Each structure stands twice: as C-alpha cells, then as structure tokens.
Amino acid sequence: MSSTHPRTGVLALQGAFGLHRAVLTRLGEPSTEVRTIEDLLAVDRLIIPGGESSVMAKLADESGMMPVLRGRIEAGMPVLGTCAGAIMLAAEIVDGRVGQPSIGVLDITVRRNAFGRQAESFTTNLVMIDDADPAAEAHDFEAVFIRAPGIERTGSAVATMASYDGQPVMVRQENVIATTFHPELSGDDTVHRLFLNL
Ligand code: GLN
Domain for residue 3, yes or no? Predict the structure, then answer.
C-alpha cells in the first residue's frame, strides 16, 4: 500500500462504529476511530455509523467537531452516513430532539423513526442503481433497517440510488452517500465497496 492510499476513518463518538470497521477489515481496508478533531484531520474519508443521532450530534457539537466535519465534507472528503449517520448529514431533520444539530451537507429532509413501532426492524432486498456511473449495472443487495429514518425530500443535487416502498433509502450528493439502513449488518459489502471507490 502506498503512502498516498486514502486513510479511512469511522466516527466513533457513539453507535455501531465497530461493525463498520469489521467490514472494512474484511475488504482489506485499514481504518481508524475518529473521536477528536485531530483524528478527523488525519483521515481522507469517513463513515458516520448508525446509533442514536441526537446523542451523536450532541457529542460532536460539544467537541467542536461539527464545523470541521462540515468544512472537510464541503471541501470534497468522501463520507458515508448510515441510519443515524444519514440524519447527521441531513440539511433538515423532522422529529429530532429540540435543537438537534446536524452537519447539514446533504440536501434532504429526514424524519427520525419514520417506520413506526410496528416495524422497528426488518430486512429486505433492494436494487441499487448508481446514477453517477451509467456503466454500473443495477444489482440486488440485502438491507437491514433498524428504527430507520425516512427520507421525505431530496434536493435537485441528490440522486436516489435505492428505494423501498417508493421512498429513497440510499442517496448520493457528489462525495456524500447516505443510507437509512445498516449496510454493516447484512454481510453484503456493496455499499462499502462503492464508498471506497468514491
Ligand atoms: N432512530 C435513530 C436516531 O434517530 C437511528 C437508528 C439507527 O441508527 N439504527 O438516531
């Protein structure tokens, strides 16, 4: 591996960061845990995991990381946000904790816990289409949803890569990919591979 190989970080303030690191290891990709601004400045791309977005946002806010996250992502750092991570990236949050901050770099509106109590968790097969890469073939993959948010609006710069029940569940805006499901839980590495190829 050359010294110019991008360094991959996983935001490790709270939530399912360990499982994302396990997927990266399976793909032969070294990773580090990002807990501080210094950690963040030492990586070239970042995964923001699932967990509890209100807690994660509070910790990121208190540590002063929010503006640094925003600046790095706006400057082009590839980022993958999954479930709570998608909420962290969203421009607009519905049913958030009062005053819940977000990084705000992805032009979507998300509703927290959109699938309701009767569907706290479920697994389904989805078809992914990469609009940004017309040569890529659409393919099936397995998606695990846990107290998932719903994407209620996507801005004009946002491409939908996968939908469930007519609603986007995987979206992309340039260097930002977000999923409302947990790609680290299915044993299907499609989403991580796509992120590493950004
Ligand atoms: N419901 C959680 C939240 O609002 C997200 C759930 C998850 O990441 N699995 O942060």
Answer: no
What pLDDT digit, counting tens, does each position of 145-193 carry?
999 999 999 999 999 999 999 999 999 999 999 999 999 999 889 999 9
Residue 120 appears among annotated catalytic residues: no
Q: Residue 85 CA: which ligand 1 atom is closest?
A: 8
Q: Is the CB of 57 under 6 A from ligand 1?
A: no
With DSSP H G I counted as helix, E B as strand and the rest as coil, what are the percentages for the chain, rounded to 5? 25, 35, 40
2 within some domain: no
Residue 161: CB partners within 8 Å, gap ≥ 6? Answer: 128, 129, 130, 131, 168, 170, 171, 172, 177
Residue 49 Cα: closest atom of ligand 1: 8
Q: What's the predicted TM-score (pTM) here?
A: 0.95
> Which residue range(s) make up the domain with 23?
8-196
The 8-class DSSP code of residue 197 comes to T
Whether residue 155 is contained in a domain is answered as: yes
Q: How many angstroms separate the alpha carbon of residue 74 from the centre of ligand 1?
A: 24
Clarify whether 182 is annotated catalytic: yes
Assess whether 139 carries a catalytic annotation.
no
CATH of residue 124: 3.40.50.880
